[in-house]
Amino acid sequence: MKNYYAILGIATYAQEADIKRAYRHLALLYHPDKNKSSEAASFFVEINEAYEVLGDPIRKVVYDKMLAGTEPQVSAQPMVNKPHRDPRYRPKSAEYIKEVRAKKKPYYEFIDAHVQYAVLFSRLAFLFSIALLADYSLQADKHSQVIKAVEKKLGSESVKVKINDDEVFTLAGQSLEEFTAGEVINLYRSPFFSVPTKIENEQTKFQAGVPITIYGNFIFAPFFLLITSLIGTFYWKGVEFRFNLGVMNFLLIILNSLFLKIHAF
């Protein structure tokens, strides 16, 4: 005869609250979603079985008398085998456990076979983030340009500045008075990826930053790429975790590549 008290790790005089607390603690430890060993699955079934008996006052009385070696007095009230309210904590058959594992097996096999490529994407993302950091930190190149047109739409707080190679930049609204068509300006670009950082009026030396760039409003993108690529490159625990980071870094490489050209749209 199974000792349900021993299974739950409680004394025979344990109260209802103690039984429930012990059950919840063990159910969380040995739930198949968290503990995938075969021993844990078997013990999880026993935990549920013990709680189904000890958690029911009528069944507990009968079980206690059987455990003590006395003949139980069967109550006239029929005993109903009530399933646990949460389906996750109901006893699972061996066939069900095998079926769940069989469904998950191809998923984990796929991850094991492709995790090396995911780590490679994380390393490429790390190198890309270092290049972005260097591009942002080094001194910008200066190019002389002539303003072709300056316009501000009614109700807009920004100014459109078009230069002689037909490139258009969006600046803050106060720049309208500082830049006029025909003036010579100095356009500063990052050394590696030629991202525009600021425009300077060559005569008045007034400078205005170019906000809609990867180093302006979208600076969060390379920063996030640096963090995730660092973790994906140097953190070696958890195959599934590294695989997911590799996928994330691949998507961030694409996103940052788009942001490098966003000022041109």
Write a brief structural summary.
With 265 residues, this protein is α+β, with helices and mostly antiparallel strands.
Largest sheet: 6 strands, antiparallel
Strand content: 5-15%
Average residue pLDDT: 86
- Work out the oligomeric state of the chains in this entry: single chain
End-to-end separation in angstroms reads 76 Å
* Strand order, largest beta sheet: 3-2-1-4-5-6
- How many structural domains are formed by the residues? 3
Helix share, percent = 40-55%
CATH topology of the largest domain: Helix Hairpins
| Run of helices and strands | HHHHHEEEEEEHH
Rg value: 34 Å
Architecture of the largest domain, CATH level 2?
Orthogonal Bundle
- CATH homologous superfamily designation of the largest domain: DnaJ domain
Notable features of this structure?
single chain; alpha+beta; Helix Hairpins; 3 domains; six-stranded antiparallel sheet; elongated
Task: Please explain how this structure is put together.
With 265 residues, this protein is an alpha+beta fold. The chain has a 6-stranded antiparallel beta sheet, with no helix packed on it. A hairpin with a 6-residue loop joins strand 1 and strand 2. Helix 5 packs parallel to helix 7. It is elongated, with a radius of gyration of 34 Å.
